Amino acid sequence: MTVGERPVVEEPRLAVRRRASGTWSRRGLLVFFLPALATVLTGFAALAVSGNLLLPFEKVLVLEGKMASKRDFFEDEEVQRILLKHRIQVHITSSGSREVAVRDTASFDFVFPSGQPAGDLITGMRAAAGQYAKVHRPFVSPIVLATYREYAETLRDAGVATPLPAGGSDQPLYYSLDMKKFLESINGGLRWSDLGIQRHGISNTNRIVAQSPDVCGSNSAGTYLALVSFTWRGNGPEVPSTAEEATSRAQSVKHLMEQGLPAADVFRTYIAPEGKGIAPVVVAYEHQYLAYQLRYRAASGRLDSQRVLLYPSSQFVTQPQFIALNDKGERLRELMADDPDLRRRAMELGFRILDPAGEVAGDQLSDFLSERNIPVPALQGNNTRSPMPRIRHLEQMISVVGGCPAAQLPDGAQ
């Protein structure tokens, strides 16, 4: 710019800039660290309340266990949380209960067969070999037949099943099954269509059967075999008393047994959407069904009224046996016997827990189911408690029906 003859030089403009804040200014530090600090403090508070404050700094004992259907107990997240509180974790190897008994258990700290026959087989073998074995019987669960309403009502029409009283429900979840009539239907080769299943909206021309797991590996299948044998004995003794009688009894009922699915898959197939078409009647444990209904109501707010239970008129109550095989397993055995949280959780999973005397502990399960609006099974008092054959004779029957070798029992085993 020029004024007259002289150029005018424009003065430079000066700006005062505020000192740039560093990334870690005091305010930035607070914004970043306060939420993180709050999270840490919350975590410490939660650990303190749960009694696990020092858990990250303490050694956790990992136990190896082998079992069949009772793995549901140890796979439950609440059970795992309770065990972790006591610094114990359990790694499960799945196997049928009888398979647990007849296979090598050297690499395991405990086994948990689903019933007394397999448990007695294990303890008898270990006692004969001078090996460690301590037993705890935490709960019981009756053997049942799980089915669907259309099939239960078809059996009701035929006079084979009768609804049990259960909380005033207009759609009963529980039925008493006349085992003799049910087995007579199987023996006669009757099909579901012969009993009029079509009247209930289903077309099924298959033979009437109850699907069980492989009897060579499963406690539930072995127990069901004993139940069938007891019911179908004719005028014979309640249980076989010789190997010859056991063989004869097994041969007489082999055609009444339907096996196939692995033990772990039978109930899972039943609750799957396609289960009705694959296996409409399956051998199961009561606790599996009750736990399923509890989960179903918690998720949906209602019952699954299409899946129901048949309680055989000849009752077998299975008694799972937790067997510690060493000192590590003994630590868990004592915990299962004494810890009230584990006992409570077992009841919440549908088991009938036992008191120290080995009796069913009051009405805890009934009260628990009622509080959650699950009908309580009301078994008829005139049902027969069926005796179990001696383990030696049951093994012979399993061998005949399943086509597998009988377990080599130690001398003196009953």
List the helices and strands and how they pair.
Blueprint: E1 2-3, E2 6-7, H1 26-50, E3 61-67, H2 71-75, H3 77-85, E4 88-94, H4 97-102, E5 110-112, H5 116-128, E6 134-136, E7 139-148, H6 149-157, E8 161-163, E9 174-177, H7 179-187, E10 211-212, H8 219-231, H9 243-253, E11 258-259, H10 263-271, H11 275-278, E12 282-285, H12 286-300, E13 307-312, E14 314-315, E15 317-318, E16 322-324, H13 327-338, H14 340-348, E17 352-353, H15 364-371, E18 384-385, H16 391-402
Parallel strand pairs: 3-4, 3-5, 9-13, 10-11, 14-18
Antiparallel strand pairs: 1-2, 5-16, 6-16, 7-12, 7-13, 7-15, 7-17, 8-9
Helix pairs in contact: 9-16
Give the number of domains: 2
- Strand % is 15-25%
Largest sheet: 7 strands, mixed
CATH architecture descriptor name of the largest domain: 3-Layer(aba) Sandwich
Task: Give the structural class.
Answer: alpha/beta
Give the integer mean of the pLDDT values. Answer: 83
Could you give a quick summary of the protein structure above?
This protein is an alpha/beta fold and 414 residues long.
Structural overview:
The protein has about 425 residues and is of the alpha/beta class. It has two domains: about 55-140 and about 320-380, Periplasmic binding protein-like II (D-Maltodextrin-Binding Protein, domain 2); about 140-320, D-Maltodextrin-Binding Protein, domain 2 (3-Layer(aba) Sandwich). The protein is about 40% helix and about 15% strand. The chain contains 16 helices and 18 strands. The chain has helices at about 25-50, 70-75, 75-85, 95-100, 115-130, 150-155, 180-185, 220-230, 245-255, 265-270, 275-280, 285-300, 325-340, 340-350, 365-370, 390-400, and strands at about 1-5, 5, 60-65, 90-95, 110, 135, 140-150, 160-165, 175, 210, 260, 280-285, 305-310, 315, 315-320, 320-325, 350-355, 385. The strands form five sheets. Strands 7, 8, 9, 12, 13, 15 and 17 form a seven-stranded mixed beta sheet that branches. A five-stranded mixed beta sheet has the order 4-3-5-16-6. The protein has a two-stranded antiparallel sheet with strand order 1-2. Strand 1 (about 1-5) and strand 2 (about 5) form a beta hairpin. It is globular, with a radius of gyration of 31 Å. It starts with a strand and ends in a 12-residue tail after the last helix.
